[in-house]
Amino acid sequence: MEFKVSANTEINKKRGLNKKFLDAFYKILLFIVIIGIWQISAQRIGSSLLLPMPMDVFHGFITCITDPEIVKNVLITMQRVLKGFMYAMGFGLPLGLIMGFSSTFEKVFSPVVDSARQVPIMAWVPLTIVWFGIGDGPTIFLIAFAGVFPIILNTIQGVRSISKDYYNAAKSMGASPFVIFTNVMLPAALPDILTGARLAISTGWMSVI
């Protein structure tokens, strides 16, 4: 019996390694095919403005990541995105938790949230310049504004998806509201919160321009 179990384990390991190898092989093959099509298309077009050669793009990439001025600007942009993301988390996470837990708060804040998130992000640019002036203020505000809604909506979804049985079980054992929040609500909603945070980061990068 032990021999069969060990043999099956070895077979499963080999299958897993073969699958990983095939996945890596297919990805490399697809990359080579794309580069080949790119190279042929660039040669036929014959214009570096419309479609540059892959090698020219690679040299340009190396130049960008080794240029101190470009690296400095990238770090400044990352700092803005991080600040905007932190503001979005600081505002969106508590609001999402409250709206997800309390239907009364959800009815009060939902019209405001739904109305504000329908406004295109570019429509806020003139107002942010008036409010915050020229500098990092408008950029950080737009990043935070764009990222706060995925956090709110995903947090609400995470809290609402928690079964009432968990709350009832915690209450039956004498858990306080704070204990229920830290040991039931927050851990159960964490996957959806992280999904909202990931979407907020990507939205912030798209809004930074």
UniProtKB/TrEMBL annotation:
Protein's GO biological process: transmembrane transport
Topology class, membrane: Multi-pass membrane protein
Keyword Cell membrane found: yes
Gene3D superfamilies assigned to the protein according to its UniProt record, in alphabetical order: MetI-like
Main localization, broad class: membrane
Cited CDD domains: TM_PBP2
Pfam family, any one: BPD_transp_1
ABC transmembrane type-1 domain ranges (all copies): 74-209
Keywords, alphabetical: Cell membrane, Membrane, Transmembrane, Transmembrane helix, Transport
InterPro entries the UniProt entry points to: MetI-like, MetI-like_sf
Residues that span the membrane, as ranges: 21-41, 85-105, 117-134
GO cellular component: plasma membrane
Top-level taxon in the UniProt lineage: Bacteria
Entry's localization field: Cell membrane
Family: Belongs to the binding-protein-dependent transport system permease family.
Protein name: Binding--dependent transport system inner membrane component family protein
